[in-house]
Amino acid sequence: MRTIVEGLNAEPFNRQLTMVKFDSRGGEKLLQTLSDVLGWIQGDIDHIQKWRLDILEGNKTAIYPVLEWMFDNVDRLKERVYLASFLTKVEVPVEEQSPDVLRVINLVEQKMQEFKEVHGRIVESRSDFVRAEDIHADLKAMTEEKEQLSRKIERSRRKVARRPDLDKCMTLAARLRHENEKNQDLQIQRQEQRNALVHTGQRLNRLERTLNEIERERETNDPRVLMNKMKFERLNKTDKRDKKDEASEDKLVIYRHQSTNIQRKKANIADSLHSTRQELDHIEAMIMAKKTELTEKSGKEKWFRRYSTKSTQKFKEIKQENINEGRGVIETMEEDSDLLNRRPKTAKPTTTDVRNLKSGAEELSNEINQKRSAVQQLNQEIESFYHEHKNENEQFYAKQAEFETSKERWKKNRKNFDRN
């Protein structure tokens, strides 16, 4: 990964990537990076298309370089063909992938990986063997060169051994070698100084151009124009500062509005709390009044119950007496009526005098009329008694309903009071 990142950060890509950024890239970005690198390696697309056409047409300019490259890389090509025969994957359709087939595919991939590892170790051992042979050949060549140099040195010694000024010549040769090295150093220094002089001249020219431009601007510039320009810049900066202050003020205004709203809500809540407390006090006072009223009514209720019980009993007794009396009168009248009905059939008249009979009939009719009037009077008394006590009964039942309503209301108030 380090090699890839270094290559992408170099020319002509200049991606400025790190290993972490490159590792976090998605699939689409990696494909785009691969496409860019392949395009950079392939070079001109038009040239590639022309080369392909030349290959198809059998042009010599395209065939000869390919053949030359193949003969130069025969061993590598043979190795690739050999590896391809063992490392080519067989594509199996998805619908035919059973568990057994998947197990075989995984086993084949595992064996391919083992084959790659074994082949890599073999290649390394071969390269080590070739390297050892190269080192052995280099050592042999160096030994031969050493022998040749030894023979040359021996011949040179034999040649100069006869000269009387050998030491002087060796001293001069050492001085010559030293002077040559010194001359080389001086040449390097002179080249460096020339380069520095060139750079200094270029810098001087650049500074002179800058100075000339400044002098021309000084000649053409008017102090009033400069003052106006400075004023304009000052106004622009003042406007920017004011806008910035307004923006900050706007932010503060928002917070002020929020605080005002919060205070208003707080005051409203306090008012509602005060009104709620007043209402609670009022309700408590009403509850106490209701309690007092119900307490007072409870005594009246007992008295009213006793009074209603006595009145009912008295009314029942009077009514029963009237009914019994009416029943006795009715029974007497029924007996008289039966006697009168049976008498003409069973009894014989005591006299045959018409006047006596008329007077007896008148007496009977008068007696019957008196009985009827007495019965009517009793019925009227019963009806009047019923109507009189009917109002009392209605008042009693109304009082009883009012009492039940008050009792239910008192129970509800009691529940609300207990709940609060």
Automatic annotation (TrEMBL):
<keyword id="KW-0969">Cilium</keyword>
<dbReference type="GO" id="GO:0015631">
    <property type="term" value="F:tubulin binding"/>
</dbReference>
<dbReference type="GO" id="GO:0030992">
    <property type="term" value="C:intraciliary transport particle B"/>
</dbReference>
<keyword id="KW-0970">Cilium biogenesis/degradation</keyword>
<feature type="coiled-coil region">
    <location>
        <begin position="354"/>
        <end position="395"/>
    </location>
</feature>
<dbReference type="Pfam" id="PF18383">
    <property type="entry name" value="IFT81_CH"/>
</dbReference>
<protein>
    <submittedName>
        <fullName>IFT81 calponin homology domain-containing protein</fullName>
    </submittedName>
</protein>
<dbReference type="GO" id="GO:0042073">
    <property type="term" value="P:intraciliary transport"/>
</dbReference>
<dbReference type="GO" id="GO:0060271">
    <property type="term" value="P:cilium assembly"/>
</dbReference>
<dbReference type="InterPro" id="IPR041146">
    <property type="entry name" value="IFT81_CH"/>
</dbReference>
<dbReference type="GO" id="GO:0036064">
    <property type="term" value="C:ciliary basal body"/>
</dbReference>
<keyword id="KW-0966">Cell projection</keyword>
<comment type="similarity">
    <text>Belongs to the IFT81 family.</text>
</comment>
<dbReference type="InterPro" id="IPR043016">
    <property type="entry name" value="IFT81_N_sf"/>
</dbReference>
<feature type="coiled-coil region">
    <location>
        <begin position="132"/>
        <end position="217"/>
    </location>
</feature>
<keyword id="KW-0175">Coiled coil</keyword>
<feature type="domain" description="IFT81 calponin homology">
    <location>
        <begin position="43"/>
        <end position="91"/>
    </location>
</feature>
<dbReference type="InterPro" id="IPR029600">
    <property type="entry name" value="IFT81"/>
</dbReference>
